[in-house]
Amino acid sequence: GESVGLHLPTLSVQEGDNSIINCAYSNSASDYFIWYKQESGKGPQFIIDIRSNMDKRQGQRVTVLLNKTVKHLSLQIAATQPGDSAVYFCAENTYSGGGADGLTFGKGTHLIIQP
Amino acid sequence: ETGVTQSPTHLIKTRGQQVTLRCSSQSGHNTVSWYQQALGQGPQFIFQYYREEENGRGNFPPRFSGLQFPNYSSELNVNALELDDSALYLCASSSPLSRSTDTQYFGPGTRLTVL
């Protein structure tokens, strides 16, 4: 199975509301996490990252929360706008001691903005 | 825009053929990773190149191979194409501070269709 997954395939929110996208991971050795946004026909776009020695990190209109106890990650988007419509992926980076393991992605959550 | 470019944008091949995809990394980045993204799925790590050598590999067969050049650009080669190779192929560049904190920036991808 996948190491990283998201709880909901689709999330629909009203424009102007806050959005919360969740992610569960299973590898307790993971020490770096990234949220990506992918619009249709484009590559994933970096949004925000967090290291395992942090619980919270804020960016412009976005906040990432990390709960290592329950291996849960969330992305909060404030005042959601139509341009936020996309598929959101969380990804984890784990170094196993050999070569690079790459980023492990979940299947994604499709955020739909209702007018 | 990340500064990572990929070519071609789209490609159609038939089963059994060979294909080469190209990637130019973002200025200042010395590491290139390749991912395969099937429709509706998250990207899957193929391999990573650093200093012109393969630095790590995911669960892909040997018919997936690559190169990295002195200017850090990279190629992905796939031999004996199969129908299941139809996907979006993504290149990501980075200059990781450590093996486990690899912030990767993605290009727009190459859409490969195998008939």
Question: Explain this structure to me?
Answer:
- The complex is a heterodimer of chains A (115) and B (115).
- Chain A is mostly beta strands.
- Helix content of chain A is 0%, strand content 53%.
- Chain A is globular and about 50 Å long.
- The N and C termini of chain A lie far apart (37 Å).
- The mean pLDDT of chain B is 93.
- Chain B contains no helices and 11 strands.
- Helices cover 0% and strands 50% of the residues of chain B.
- In chain B, strands 2, 4, 5, 6, 9, 10 and 11 form a 7-stranded mixed beta sheet that branches.
- The chains are: A mainly beta (115), B mainly beta (115).
- Chains A and B meet through strand 4, strand 5, strand 9 and strand 10 of A and strand 5, strand 6 and strand 10 of B.
In short:
Chain A has no helices and 11 strands. Chain A is mostly beta strands.
Rounded mean pLDDT score of chain B: 93
- Specify the biggest β-sheet of chain B: 7 strands, mixed
SS strand fraction of chain B: over 45%
Provide the structure class of chain B: mainly beta
Question: How many β-strand runs of chain B?
Answer: 11
Arithmetic mean pLDDT of chain A: 89
Total number of helical segments of chain A? 0
How much helix, percentage-wise, in residues of chain B?
A: under 10%
User: Roughly how many Å is the radius of gyration of chain A?
Assistant: 14 Å
The unreliable regions of chain B are none
> How many H/I helices of chain B?
0
Structural class by sheet pairing and helices of chain A: mainly beta
> What helical percentage do the residues of chain A reach?
under 10%
Query: End-to-end distance of chain A, in Å?
Result: 37 Å
Largest interface: A-B, 29 and 33 residues
Termini separation of chain B: 32 Å
Can you write the helix and strand succession of chain A as a string?
A: EEEEEEEEEEE
Q: Can you tell me the overall shape of chain B?
A: globular
Radius of gyration of chain B: 13 Å
Unreliable stretches of chain A: none
